[in-house]
Write a structure and sequence with these properties.
heterodimer, A: mainly alpha, Four Helix Bundle (Hemerythrin (Met), subunit A), 2 domains, about 0% strand, globular, B: about 100 residues, mainly alpha, 3 helices
Chain lengths: ~170, ~100
């Protein structure tokens, strides 16, 4: 059981990181989108390893099935051939590398400072069937106001997207 | 049991790849996809800390982040479409009509 968990974690982690690197470096945007989908699916597997079953299925349905379909749809609407023949990277490698190093140093320091407290509790013998119920309880009791704000945000985003993408007549 | 650190390192790797993607690519769609990658890395962190504390608060926050990602993708892609209709380009450094 333990070795299976570890093997699955390594598989998903390597897949996620490799396809993330490929996503950032590919010339063709459609390939990038497919690699991002692979990353998101591997992350869903990581969620399942962490016993977050509801988020696992939300990740697949909403992220992969919703957002990524939107991305691919827009990629089809813009002209691929022209942008593929141009230079793909700008000249900010030094800034990007420096910022990545600083971020990595900060994060590693945070992990190092809290290394004593980072312990996962032992995994339950059988998977709890109550994960979705617990998330729903928290969402509709303690997090009611943020939930309402999130729905208003979605409404505003929907109106904004329609206004932005609308073809101007005349 | 897989240590918490491993999940945090995975999240860190995805986050930094996303940051490098946002800063170095010229294509706005790839930049938006890198932002999705960053949000996803944050979700891994929230999930592992939620598991560590034995509560579902982290998972609820992850739902809010996914909501944000959906809203951001919808509006961002709408802006890209509108810009493409006007200027026939999706490159970030061509977006300089406001520049003097």
């Amino acid at each position: 059981m333990q070795t299976l968990n570890q093997a699955l974690f390594i598989f998903f982690a390597v897949l996620a990181v490799a396809s993330a690197i490929l996503m950032v470096t590919r010339r063709n945007i459609v390939h990038g989108a497919v690699f991002l989908i692979t990353t998101l699916l591997s992350t869903a597997g990581i969620f399942l390893l962490l016993q977050a079953e509801f988020l696992f299925i939300v990740q697949i349905i909403l992220y992969v099935g919703g957002i990524m379909v939107l991305f691919v749809f827009v990629i089809m609407l813009v002209d691929l051939d022209v942008s593929m023949r141009l230079v793909q990277f700008n000249r900010q490698w030094i800034v990007a590398g420096a910022l990545a190093l600083v971020l990595a140093a900060q994060f590693l320091f945070a992990i190092w400072a809290g290394r004593g407290a980072l312990r996962l509790p032992a995994m339950a013998a059988e998977i709890s069937p109550k994960n979705t119920e617990a998330v729903g309880d928290a969402l509709f009791s303690h997090y009611m106001l943020p939930f309402e704000i999130a729905s208003i945000l979605l409404l505003v985003a929907m109106i904004g997207a329609v206004v932005m993408a609308k073809r101007r007549v005349g | 049991m897989i240590p918490v650190d491993y999940y945090l390192f995975l999240s860190l790797a995805l986050f930094i790849i996303g940051v490098i993607g946002v800063l170095t690519r010229r294509n706005v769609i790839i930049m938006l996809m890198s932002i999705e990658l960053i949000l996803n890395a944050v979700n891994i962190n929230l999930m592992v800390f939620s598991r560590m504390w034995g509560t579902v608060d982290g998972q609820v926050f992850a739902i809010f982040i996914i909501t944000d990602a959906a809203a951001e993708a919808a509006v961002g892609l709408g802006i890209i479409l509108a810009f493409f209709h006007n200027r026939e380009t999706v490159l970030a450094d061509e977006m300089d009509i406001m520049k003097w």
